[in-house]
Amino acid sequence: MPMKVELVTGATGMLGSALVLELLSRTDSDIRCLVRARDAASAAAKLWKALAATTDDLGLEAGLQLRDARSRVQAVPGDIGVPGCGLSSHERISRVWHCAATLRYESAFAAETHHANVTGTGNVVAAARANEAELVHVSTAYVSGTRRGVQFELLPDPRQRFNNTYEQTKAVAEHVVAQSRLNWRIVRPSAVIASSRTRRTGHTSGLYDLAAKVQRFRRQYQRRYGAILEARPIRLCGDENCEINLVPLDYAASAIVRTGLAGPPHTIFHTTNPSAPRAREVYDAVLAAADLMPPQFVEEADDLDAVDRLLANTIAFHYPYIISDKSFDQTHTESVVGAGALAFHASIDVIDELLNPREPSHR
């Protein structure tokens, strides 16, 4: 029987590289990683750098993991943004894991985001169809947009409102996948944080982007508003009990691969944290990391003064997630991985460790 071949897009990213390492441990397949690069040598260099960094971030035994990777993993230069993704036809792919996407959310980059997340997904679907391959599409739990309450493992309503272009394009991409006539599975992680074991990562999205923006706010306005920043808490217009769904990288990668391999086709899976922290815990830790007082949550925007609004503008991408409280049903996911398998209690102390890991990463 010929060896199965898995194709991974986005393998140089935080989640994609962890997914490659998870596939190495859970399958006997050969793994091909589509990497945007000018040639095979450049693609390989980018891939191995990413895999080495993620092996470190996950606290894995580097020698064993990368030795196994060298024998089974190959970087393939290509681009999801072009028809055919730049793939040759000499090797049959059995399953595609589509992780590649852009996180650009600003309206000024709407065309670029649509091309990467929607057109790119269409090109990946076509490549999977040409190979008669199954498709595991990595989306986001936040295709739920501005909806509140429990979000179910169903396709999003295309008529709903979204917080930003990123959410909207990922929702459209899900419909592209669902209409593909492939054996597809859609997996929806929430905001991915560092490994539950090491607490460290070199990546800067999600929680880390929020913390960086708050620290930048402190630096920018310290000279002008220092006395105010030190004398009273910053006010945030939102609900301190809003769920901020943070899922560790190791938990997310494991659940994605397990549901992608064993879950029933034509099914959506929330690979989210059922024990997610609340906005109060997250923002207390994030503001403390910038040497600011714990915030005061208020109900009305009229309660914000000029300084509060400066912070609100600085963290504009993150602000909607403390306004529309939601949680994520995991009926489909738990049928594969078990109840509570993704539960990770991110207390204020844990979030502080995530923002200030005690064991520095040596690269």
Outline the structure in words.
The protein is α/β, with parallel strands linked by helices. The protein has eleven helices and 13 strands. Strands 3-2-1-4-5-7-11 form a seven-stranded parallel beta sheet, sandwiched between helices. Helix 1 links the parallel strand 1 (5-9) and strand 2. Helix 1 crosses helix 2, helix 1 crosses helix 7 and helix 8 (279-289) crosses helix 11 (348-355). It starts with a strand and ends in an 8-residue tail after the last helix. The relative contact order is 0.14.
Features:
15% strand; 363 residues; 42% helix; alpha/beta
Based on CA atoms alone, the radius of gyration comes out at 21 Å
Number of helices, counting only DSSP H or I runs of 4 residues or more = 11
Estimated share of beta-strand residues: 5-15%
Distance between the termini: 40 Å
Q: Fraction of residues in helices?
A: 40-55%
Enumerate the spans where pLDDT stays under 50 for 5 or more consecutive residues.
none
Average residue-wise pLDDT? 94
Shape: globular
Spatially, the strands of the biggest sheet line up as 3-2-1-4-5-7-11
Which sequence of SSEs, written as H and E, runs from N to C? EHEHHEEHEEHEEHEEHEHEHEHH
Reported for the largest beta sheet, the result is: 7 strands, parallel
- Structure summary, number of beta strands: 13
Helix and strand composition category: alpha/beta
